[in-house]
Design brief:
alpha+beta; 2 strands; two-stranded antiparallel ribbon
């Protein structure tokens, strides 16, 4: 979920890096405030109901993310 820089820069990033997820843009920072995000990088995994399953601040550990997704997928 992008909030910093500009929407154009975020769209350029998505075009260059070919992300596999939908980019959301919030120019107000309200989403960050609601989710308790205070800086980048930050990541969180939510289930289909919007409940936070796990979250990471700072360097996002790929292995932990993949393990959490696998566990979520098996339920």
């Amino acid at each position: 979920m992008g909030t910093q820089d500009s929407l154009g820069q975020a769209e350029d990033f998505v075009s260059r890096h070919g992300t596999t997820f939908t980019m959301l843009w919030d120019r107000t920072f309200q989403s960050w405030n609601q989710l308790g995000i205070t800086g980048q990088p930050a990541g969180m995994l939510m289930n289909r109901y919007g409940q936070i399953i796990d979250q990471w601040r700072g360097d996002i550990p790929r292995g932990q993310v993949l393990d959490a997704v696998a566990e979520l997928s098996s339920t």
